[in-house]
Design a protein that fits this description.
Structural class: alpha/beta
Organism: Solitalea longa
Helix content: 25-40%
Largest sheet: 6 strands, parallel
InterPro entries: dTDP_dehydrorham_reduct, NAD(P)-bd_dom_sf, RmlD-like-bd
Enzyme class: oxidoreductase
CATH topology: Rossmann fold
Number of strands: 12
Number of domains: 1
Strand content: 15-25%
Order of helices and strands: EHEHEHEHEEHEEEHEEHEHH
Pfam family, one: RmlD_sub_bind
Shape: globular
Pathway: Carbohydrate biosynthesis; dTDP-L-rhamnose biosynthesis
CATH class: Alpha Beta
């Protein structure tokens, strides 16, 4: 299988690079310099030349707050790009994997979100990702939409690395405790995606994947400091104490029964995966 990975220089793309070294498949890793997914002619030509059988779209505009003012750019990368990829996948009978987000939910639930819950994004970022979900599912019948949350890894910038830096720089810091979700180690997500692509006759559609368990950003930070042997004083603060341009869901824990039932995937507990990542960092 020839697998195209877009946005390959990001966290998930880099984790897929590591897995590709041990895979029987052929991977083509691209970022914007190799393939601009916003240009349909470029996408169609790439698929034709390289005989693409599957596409994992890791490319995304993820600057949640900047998206509120850079709406045109956010829509181009998060909506037009996936649309072009989905059309190319359909024309080439290829499987598409569209990585989405917990930001498609409004965060008012008190129980974990299942895949069939009505989405209601609060931010421009969430709205672009929600629109992309509907487009790719409509345009290509062989599509997986995988919603994930709170992604971190040894690569790039993320909450874990930010906390490690601040924990070394400051004796005290405040972290939000009234936003609740589940951290996700990008290496675990990458493994799950390849597992899904390797299954014969799968059920396509929307799936949720994050690590197991529940945490607030405060809980997440406390665990990072504990396992990273750092001792700053951590104060819990409210979202209202730290206003941002984009609204975020207060509760975005996702139910993962569907992906576990369909693919038999075992999902690690978030603290166990955090320990694994910190050992590598």
């Amino acid at each position: 299988m020839n697998i195209l990975v877009t946005g390959a220089n990001g966290q998930l793309g880099n984790e897929l690079r590591l897995l590709a070294k041990k895979s029987q498949h052929t991977f083509l890793f691209t970022d914007v310099s190799e393939l601009n997914i916003c240009v349909p002619e470029a996408v169609n030509l790439f698929f034709k030349i390289n005989n693409i059988n599957a596409c994992i779209n890791c490319a995304a505009y993820t600057a949640v707050d900047k998206a509120e003012t850079e709406q045109e750019l956010a829509y181009a990368i998060n909506v037009t790009g996936p649309e072009n990829l989905a059309k190319a996948c359909a024309a080439n009978n290829a499987v598409m994997v569209q990585v989405s987000t917990d930001f498609v939910f409004n965060g008012t639930s008190s129980i974990p979100y299942t895949e069939d819950v009505q989405i209601d994004p609060l931010s421009i970022y969430g709205k672009t990702k929600a629109e992309a979900e509907q487009l790719v599912l409509t345009l290509n019948s062989k599509t997986f939409v995988i919603r994930t949350a709170w992604l971190y890894s040894t690569f790039g910038g993320n909450f874990v690395k930010t906390m490690l830096r601040l924990g070394n720089e400051r004796p005290e810091l405040g972290v939000i405790f009234d936003q609740v979700g589940t951290p996700t180690y990008a290496a675990d997500l990458a493994n799950a995606i390849l597992f899904m692509l390797n299954k014969d006759n799968p059920q396509y559609g929307i799936y949720h994947y994050s690590n197991e368990g529940v945490a607030s950003w405060f809980d997440f930070a406390k665990a990072i400091f504990e396992y990273g042997n750092l001792t700053p004083k951590v104060k819990s603060i409210l979202t209202s104490d730290y206003p941002t341009p984009a609204k975020r869901p207060h509760f975005s824990v996702m139910d993962k029964k569907k992906i576990k039932k369909e693919f038999g995937i075992e999902i690690p507990y978030w603290k166990d995966s955090l320990k694994t990542c910190l050992e590598l960092i």
